[in-house]
UniProtKB/TrEMBL annotation:
UniProt-listed SUPFAM superfamilies: Trypsin-like serine proteases (SSF50494)
Keyword annotations: Hydrolase, Protease, Serine protease
Organism of origin: Prunus yedoensis var. nudiflora
Presence of the UniProt keyword Protease in the record: yes
Protein name (record): Protease Do-like 9
Comp. bias intervals (Polar residues): 20-49
Presence of keyword Cell inner membrane: no
GO terms of biological process kind: proteolysis
Record domain Protease Do-like PDZ: where: 398-543
Biased composition (Basic residues): 1-11
Coiled coil: none
Family named by the database record: Belongs to the peptidase S1C family.
């Protein structure tokens, strides 16, 4: 590898990289192996630079309809902004670019130079499932992003950079060789993925980055990555302008996030952010979130997720409401509205009691995992009580993601049954599914709670037209409530009941008081012909066959 000590080259006479968001200067550093690497900073960073920067776009989004107490959620203030992360097609890390607020120094950029050897370019081929036709997959496509080497011969990048991967390759700075990588873990909710490479040659001459402490407001940060449109590394500088709980678009959850004013280019996803001492402070998912992901994998051998208490809460701002519950003016807390039935301590926590000291609880749980215990203080009947409650990951009736697994389905007599998830709603109704999906499905998505760990919301996705299902052709995305008078819990339960049914008729009770009745023998005999007609390999997904 080349010498890590790099000197700033001569100032360029003209700008070399420009887009509609920000004008940048590419500064060449001397290095025998990587003479073309460009270190870009906002053009108005020094008094000698004649160029000027323009504001970059900010992340936008709609507020969540229901506030649920996440372990990383702030007790005082919960962000209602969805954050577009790093400009990669709306899939994102919790980072927002703003117009520069404070001009960083060149010394900050120079300190990052030795750590650049640990920043790699990630190439991925994706093959997404087709949730509307779950027995198929969509056409494959390729993407590039960034990542960085950490201890233990591992590499971190964004989850969305390797989501639904079929092949992942990594390329080091200054090298033309691409090394095949293995995905060790994907944390969809925090948008982090961990990779490794089996080839020893990849690790030669590469030192892992060191993690620093959580930065403070106005601390200088330097973002490193490989933007789309070139093979050279890019470095942009800025300061931390905000740090609080933000909505992670990719994971549909709320976790601690940073907002910086550095330009984040497409392709930079997964690239690290360094402080003025050359230590990694995130990318720009903050260090505590990254360390939770890493330690979770090391502890459990897989990523298990961020634990939650499992309650929905109400603000206690109204003075009459506070007085009626016996809350003093100097006390802070929130009222519990509902408790998730699947939460381990649902029998302990009851509606209308108050959580106190939530800030300490939030910080305490940032370092905890599913199955750990947390001490909470509640106010019940004007008396403060302490509980040692067990934490668990959140079980949603309509999951926010399918964790890279193939979608489940079951077909009988042309009726395609599926379990509803947020990716399914997006597949059926587009990105604006919150406006276009059926009202009853949206109501369950926003407000309903799972009554058991394995409960799913089942629908008739569509009806593949055949003689046997005449009159039922218009049934689309309608919830299935019961089969032969028995309530349904999940798709596997439905498939088992239908396959083992010896009754004369198959009777499905649907929402809106609809009913589907089919003769059992005729329905099962017709299924094979319908599968052949539509080139469907099996009447059920592999996960239902066991």
């Amino acid at each position: 590898m080349g010498d890590n000590k790099r000197k700033r080259g001569p100032k360029p006479k003209t700008p070399v990289a420009e887009d509609t968001n920000i004008t940048t200067m590419d500064i060449q550093y001397t290095n025998p192996t990587t003479a073309n690497d460009a270190v870009s900073v906002p053009a108005n960073e020094t008094a000698t630079d004649p160029s000027s920067s323009q504001p970059s776009r900010r992340g936008r989004g709609r507020p969540r309809k229901t506030e649920k107490l996440n372990i990383a959620a702030s007790p005082e203030r919960r962000s209602l902004r969805h954050v577009d992360q790093n400009g990669d097609g709306g899939h994102a890390l919790a980072v927002v670019s703003e117009p520069p607020l404070m001009l960083p120094s060149w010394e900050n950029v120079a300190r990052v130079v030795p750590a650049m050897e640990a920043v790699v370019k990630v190439f991925c081929v994706h093959t997404e499932p087709n949730l509307s036709l779950p027995w198929q997959r969509k056409r494959q496509y390729s993407s590039s992003s960034s990542g960085f080497v950490i201890g233990g011969r591992r590499v971190l990048t964004n989850a969305h950079s390797v989501e639904h991967h079929t092949q992942v390759k990594l390329k080091k700075r200054g090298s033309e060789t691409k090394y095949l990588a293995t995905v060790l873990a994907i944390g969809t909710e925090c948008d982090i993925a961990m990779l490794t490479v089996s080839d020893d040659e990849f690790w030669e001459g590469v030192s892992p980055v060191e993690f620093g402490e959580l930065p403070a407001l106005q601390d200088a940060v330097t973002v490193v990555g490989y933007p789309i449109g070139g093979d050279t590394i890019s470095v942009t500088s800025g300061v931390v302008s905000r740090m609080e709980i933000l909505s992670y678009v990719h994971g549909s959850t709320e976790l601690l996030g940073l907002q910086i004013d550095a330009a984040i280019n497409s392709g930079n996803s997964g690239g690290p952010a360094f402080n003025d001492r050359g230590k990694c402070v995130g990318y720009v998912i903050p260090t505590p979130v990254i360390m939770h992901f890493i330690q979770d994998y090391e502890k459990n051998g897989e990523y298990t997720g961020f634990p939650v208490i499992g309650v929905e809460w109400q603000k206690m701002e109204n003075p009459d409401l506070r007085t009626s519950i016996g809350m003093r003016t100097d006390q802070k807390g929130v009222r519990i509205r509902r408790i998730e039935p699947t939460a381990p301590e649902s029998h302990v926590l009851k509606p209308s009691i108050l959580f106190l000291a939530l800030m300490g609880l939030t910080l305490q749980m940032m370092a905890q995992y599913s199955g750990d215990n947390a001490l909470v203080k509640v106010l019940r009947n004007s008396e403060i009580i302490e509980y040692n409650i067990k934490l668990s990951t959140h079980k949603r009736l309509i999951p926010a993601h399918i964790n890279g697994k193939p979608p489940s389905y079951y077909i009988i007599a042309g009726f395609v049954f599926a379990a509803v998830s947020v990716p399914y709603l997006r597949s059926e109704y587009g990105k604006d599914y919150e406006f276009d999906a059926p009202v009853k499905l949206l109501d369950k998505h926003l407000h309903s709670m799972a009554q058991s760990i394995d409960e799913q919301l089942l629908v008739v996705s569509q009806v593949l037209v055949a003689d046997i299902n005449i009159g039922y052709e218009d049934i689309v995305n309608t919830q299935v409530l019961a089969f032969n008078g028995k309530p349904l819990n999940n798709l596997k339960n439905l498939a088992s009941m239908v396959e083992n049914c010896d009754d004369e008729y198959l009777k499905f009770d649907l929402e809106y008081d609809q009913m589907v009745v089919l003769q059992t023998k005729t329905a099962k005999a017709a299924t094979l012909d319908i599968l052949l007609t539509h080139c469907i390999p099996s009447a059920m997904s592999d996960d239902l066959k066991s």
